[in-house]
């Protein structure tokens, strides 16, 4: 039995009875019913007689059932025995996410007519908050901002660039664009309100609603049948118009997100739930200068602590790099076509320091291209980054809504930079990237902000090494290093030395020096602004160049770690080092400590702070057999050994079972399904499918190469989510068989999606579209004599002598990737184009799944 309660049916109740002699197959069937019901309501309560002894240690199918319920965001509430024999057979599962109804109290009472107890549940209800009235601010009406009219007002004022410095050109740029936007769309006072719960409510709908209310008042006064007919007709017309307005507004909002999953998530979140005001607005007692002082003092404190740790020791040698010959002394000038092409890659984010919205500049680039090109070339030729673009605006945002808004440490500084500066940076970044690729300068195991690299490639290689080591009977330490404000504490002189080691000189090194030095920033909250303060270290947050410069800065770290015999993978400032050993744990711990001491010394010498309190260690192996305790002492700090850690968004456990990761993904995907379900009545079919792909399926696919070969009981949890998403997109009923639904959508099941990802990574590695550290794990198959299969592009699969455990053969990338590749049809393996390969690969797997 299923029914809804709460505000507009926001909480659903599913009453279950499972007879005592049901087979264990009934539990997976019940899970599918629960997954389907999750689409009916954002908050679900599942209760009834399950005939599962929850008071004892759950085993087998019962344990898998409870874990699967938890993976869908439904937690088991325990409140003692519910049966006369002392067992808990009547269970209550409630949503972990708070809805309109929340379970506050539960108790049981014996009754004379049944051997089961009466279970009484108390729920508390929450009511939506009223919209608050905000202050009056000066804003520019967007509907007046016409790109054609904007170009006409600007005219030829920016076309003359000869003889002017970069600073002068930027000042003229800001002055002319400010004059044009003031002429086109002058500021007007507007009272800001809280988040609108119905932004689609148009003036036409307001008129229809007023007319409906007038007719209702007249009918209540006259009680005539003709007036009642008019009310019913007007109500139907109003409801139809309102539904059409919602549908049009939601479709337009989703279409505005283009191909950005992040933007699409924000749109869906704003449409389904009113946005919460940012943190600082909640506590007006905190001033902008207080924020500014806190952020500045935090960096100063880190520098002070680093100064106190610099001294003699391993890795504490001078951080300066001997300069090599200058091979890159000037930038290449750009044309208007180059700027136009790069302008399309810059995100249209507007800073408070910009003279006009950045989207208007991108829409008007045909008329502004010459002036923009002149500013860029002047900056490159002079070897100077314009001073007016060195100021940043900081907006403090609360890290989590559950944190105390009065505590300054709970805020994250979000930096906004002028749009024109980002365009110049984009030009330099393209030439710097070409230089890095030409010289192969970066660490081969650095995957952050590099083409053909990513978090998934780094994790696939890391987990592959750990699985192969465990297959050999070795134990492993995995250490996740934590840096405090790494981007904000980079030493400018050391970074310039590293750039000179890259061969930079002349106007190139002058430009980078100008880019780093002389920067200031200020905190802005609402209409308040702090005093600006100078930045003496760090690279600007939100900059296009900052990630690339950080990778150059961190290059020596990987060499130091590998010098101690440890493996390492990096993604920007996230560093994962690991050590495998078969015996002598004391010696392994000593080597690990020596390596971390050298890492700490290098960090201190390079003005970075390693945070030992947040460093996490995962041990993979039998602690009792190896003789490893519950913690390690690393550099005088006791670090507990954890059962699971989160690395680059993926939870790794000590058994590499991926169960914790699958449970976390399932809960997050269920929450996204709730958001999408609220919008389903107002979304066209194409928009609905796009939203589900971006918010739900993308979560199932993130790093799903790690799911290959997992047991069915683990992947079933993700399959339930995919089935629910498919029913949501197609509108299929709960009793419809899911296989035809997936086939019509052309969706591969979860297990085959994992195989698809592994084969895609294999193709990229073999064709120069992936990192070298993945390609090195794949080797061509060589036969002792010439066979017909020699020309089939086969890969060598490690033998049983090399890989003993079946789990490793099914899950380790270096083993399962060659096996899956060899099983592909020859015509698919011979394809060289990436997009064509993906299409043919999916078709081949699709035929295998659905027997087509």
UniProtKB/TrEMBL annotation:
Domain Reverse transcriptase: 378-652
GO MF annotations in UniProt: catalytic activity
InterPro entries: DNA/RNA_pol_sf, Endo/exonu/phosph_ase_sf, Endo/exonuclease/phosphatase, RT_dom
Species per Swiss-Prot/TrEMBL record: Podarcis muralis
One Pfam family in the UniProt entry: RVT_1
Protein name in the entry: Reverse transcriptase domain-containing protein
Matches recorded under PROSITE patterns: RT_POL (PS50878)
Cross-referenced PANTHER family: REVERSE TRANSCRIPTASE DOMAIN-CONTAINING PROTEIN
CDD domains: RT_nLTR_like
